[in-house]
Amino acid sequence: MCRKVLKPATKSGIFFWTMSGSICNAANTVFMTLIITRICGAETAGIYSLALAVGQLLSPIAYFEVRNFQVSDIRHEFSFSEYHLFRLITIIAASIFMVIWILLNGYSGEKLSAVILCCIFQLIEAYENVFQGLLQLNNRLDLSGKSFTLRVVFDTLLFWGLLILTQNFFLSLLVYTIFAGVWIFVITVPISNHFEKAHRTSLSFIPQLTVACLPLFLTNFLMSYIISAPKYAIDEFLLPDMQTYFSVLFMPASMVSLFTFVIYRLYITKMAEDWVNGNRKDFMRQVLLLLLWIALIGAAALLVGWWIGIPFLSWFYGLPQLSAYRSELMIVLLGGIFAATAGWFNVVFTIIRHQKTLLIVNAVSAVCCFLIVRPMVQNFALMGASLCYMVSMAILTLVQIVFILYFLKQSKKGTEF
After folding, report:
1. Are 306 and 360 in contact (CB under 8 A)?
2. What is the 3-state secondary structure of 295-350?
3. CA 247 to chain centroid
4. What is the pLDDT of residue 417?
5. What whole-number distance in Å separates Cα of residue 316 and Cα of residue 376?
């Protein structure tokens, strides 16, 4: 049987489908929360928000930050079969973590069902990710982006339709999860098979790949905890509808990070070249330029947030109760600006090859978050959750700045580090 020949990639196609995938991924949570809130109410939307937070904590274990290593493996240090097997192992590890987390937290009823389904969905996406990595390694980001974008769009529309017709949150989420799994095996895997198929392989590579990716995995796991910790505390001390309010207030802050992400992707390659070639002046100019962009986007977000943020969110999600939380929105937005800055500094650390430093930085912020999150939420409710997020991101950003200034100073002295 003849295999269909793939059309060659174009720069415009790669850019369009990559951006489309990023935007759809970010918008998906916004619109899922919207439809659940509108049809099922704030309490069910709060349960969904908690389930997403648990899934996001599970995600770093399943991914293990192998994607960046895989797509930069130009010399084929590891085969695709080895990356595929390693992903299956990390998915099993994430599944074990899911069971332990559920048992420790004693979830039951609809909350248990939502957590399990959201976690399974994250595991499905983690499996898809290894095939997307293969496509990216072969310079076919257009194919991976197109497959991902269409899956998100069709799956979200399917969820919307089912929820509107049945008003059954669990059934809709179940079908949403099953559709994602079917799409991967029917669409994504056959596309990736044009380049390479996974075969049986030995386990001898596992220690080397684990050590190579461990620092970035731990860094991402800590970051996921920092972002989700307020939601865990809200689940412990407050009512489920408060979870919805916090998630809605958090949406504009995530948009700040999304816009800056789209901008700084355009600068990474040039900055890497400047750093390797010793062109420190141009390197620093671009670092400062992106910080200026973040400041401008952040200032615009704060201005719009203060002016129409609460009225718009109240209307969009059908939650008039949000009118009491304007101060919380502004604090979360400020935290989002710090988060966008920290995300940019993560790129800078990667370019200057100090990824291990990120582990130290995130550990400091995670410890601070762990110490303050429960008492702050218990005593100050959503204001406490907002302040915890903002303070944690501020600490993360400030510690990063200290390390970057130190490394730049060492670089000027000609010191190897």
Report:
1. no
2. HHHHHHHHHHHHHHHHHHHHHHHCCHHHHHCHHHHHHHHHHHHHHHHHHHHHHHHH
3. 15
4. 45
5. 29
User: Model confidence over 245-303: pLDDT tens digits?
Assistant: 999 999 888 888 777 776 766 666 677 778 778 788 888 888 888 899 899 999 999 99
- Residue 87's contacts (CB-CB under 8 Å, 6 or more residues apart) are 62, 64, 66, 126, 127, 129, 130
Task: Quote the pLDDT of residue 1.
Answer: 43
pLDDT tens string 32-62: 999 999 999 999 999 999 999 999 889 999 9
What DSSP line would sit under 47-88, residue for residue? HHHHHHHHHHHHHHHHHTTHHHHHHT-TT-SS-HHHHHHHHH
End-to-end alpha carbon distance in the chain = 55
DSSP 203: S
The sign of the torsion formed by the CA atoms of 32, 38, 43, 44 equals: negative
Nearest to 340 by CA among 266, 402, 405, 252: 252
- Rg for the chain, CA atoms, rounded: 22
Whether 136 and 74 have beta carbons less than 8 Å apart is answered as no
- Tokens coding 227: 């972002």
For the chain, the helix, strand and coil percentages under 3-state DSSP, each to the nearest 5 = 85, 0, 15
Q: Which residues contact 338 (CB under 8 A, 6 or more apart)?
A: 390, 393, 394, 396, 397
What is the pLDDT at residue 333?
A: 96
Q: In degrees rounded to 5, what are phi and psi of residue 73?
A: -85, 65
